[in-house]
Amino acid sequence: MIFKKNSSSIDDLMSHFKACDKHFLQKIEEKYDINKYIKKIYSKAVLYECWHEKFLIGLIAIYEDKNLMSAFITNVSVINSFQKKEIATNLLSNAIEELQKHNYKTINLEVDKNNTKALNLYKKLGFSLDHINPRTDTFFYTKHL
Question: CB under 8 Å, gap of 24 or more: what pairs does 11-18 form?
Answer without folding.
Answer: 12/56, 13/38, 13/41, 13/42, 13/56, 13/59, 14/38, 15/55, 15/56, 16/56, 16/57, 16/59, 16/77, 16/79, 17/77
